[in-house]
Amino acid sequence: MSGFDLSKIPSQAPPPGVTPNFENPYSLAVLPRGFIYATLPPMVLFLGLRFYTRIKISRQVGIDDYLCAAAAAVIIAYCGVMLTFLDKPAGRHMWDVPLSELTVEYASRSSILTGVYMIAAMFIKASILCLYRRLFKVSMTANIMIWIGLFVDVVFYLATFIAFMVGCIPRPEDDQYGGWLSLTFAQRCNQVSTPTAAATGIVGSVLDIYILIVPLIMVSGLRASWKKKAGIFAIFIAGSSACVFSIVGTAYRMMIFANPGDDITYTGMPIYAMNIGEINLGIISATMPVIFVLFKGVTKTSLSWISKLRYLTRHPPPPPTRRATCRCCGAQGHAHGPAVVDAQQEDRTTPAVGDDTTVALQSGGGGEMLTYVSADYDYHRQLKMGAVGGGGSEIWAGQTQTAGTPPSSRGKGGK
């Protein structure tokens, strides 16, 4: 085609009545780009908080953390590669893409991204399941469910990754016809990629739902009130957003599977966007049970200051000049010698908040009780204890104490 200007020829014939637009065409590239900007920075932040919690607080970095970091590294690479070809040509209709933009770089990167997504999905699902094993390893039921999930996750994604790469990597015989741009390669890759993409969506969605159900089953067996169970349910259900993106992505894959077409630069954009949202929100969801102790610490500190502020507003400090009895001469109102302050005034000072105590602030007048639990707890240890129901243990180590019960009666650790 040496006599033709490829920048003037559309990659595909437009529908009747449509004129190719190479200058300012409509593009769906805004979808994956928006998901990258909206979900990638929060994912990096939450991942950093996870490792801060593991290194500085629990001092126990495990295989689940390394798998989560691996998934983050893979999806960051995925997003970086995608940004290199959005709108050039990805996102536009094929008839708005000149042949000069269908390069080897685009063909190779778009094919490799599919395999990269499979690896990222495998890592993050395995990370969540390994985290569950740390939380619920004392339960035989949980272990069986977790190992089944891990087996299906690793075997399925490795098998589909190998099958995809075998079909969508050019072979030596394709070189004479154009390699990545050869018609024989494109036909062979389409025969593999379409059913593989559909299978990846279906099995991935089923796995996501399965991973969401496992902790809900275990938490429902805890010996705790429904109010406390609901709090832990909320932590794990936060991961349902990743399931939503996975299911929506599967729906788009099935639409392409049922009605395959040639407008791949346009129809693939929603799938790319759902892939990014699924993995990034999956990583964020995987960090929530780990970094929950950080948010509880922030809440605890905030409530402590609120409690002190409310106490001071209801019980203002005594005036600067107080009548005191002099130990030397028995006279009142002068400053020499140590003063004996009235006991009622001493009782009006603000109670100190200990590191491992429950502070109850009694307000005057209406008998309102403002309680605050300042005892720290090991979230994971309590889940493990509750998973087996040992000794009727509660999932929270710090329990609100009734008024009048001395903090010392709870002992070290809030027991």
Automatic annotation (TrEMBL):
GO cellular component assignments: membrane
Domain (Rhodopsin) ranges: 49-295
Family in the record: Belongs to the SAT4 family.
UniProt membrane topology term: Multi-pass membrane protein
Keywords (A to Z) from UniProt: Membrane, Transmembrane, Transmembrane helix
Transmembrane segments: 34-53, 65-86, 106-132, 144-166, 197-219, 231-252, 272-295
Alphabetized Pfam families for the sequence: Fung_rhodopsin (PF20684)
Record-linked PANTHER family: MEMBRANE PROTEIN PTH11-LIKE, PUTATIVE-RELATED (PTHR33048:SF158), PTH11-LIKE INTEGRAL MEMBRANE PROTEIN (AFU_ORTHOLOGUE AFUA_5G11245) (PTHR33048)
Name of the protein in question: Rhodopsin domain-containing protein
Native species: Staphylotrichum longicolle
Comp. bias (Polar residues): 398-408
Subcellular location: Membrane
Chain positions covered by the region annotation Disordered: 396-415
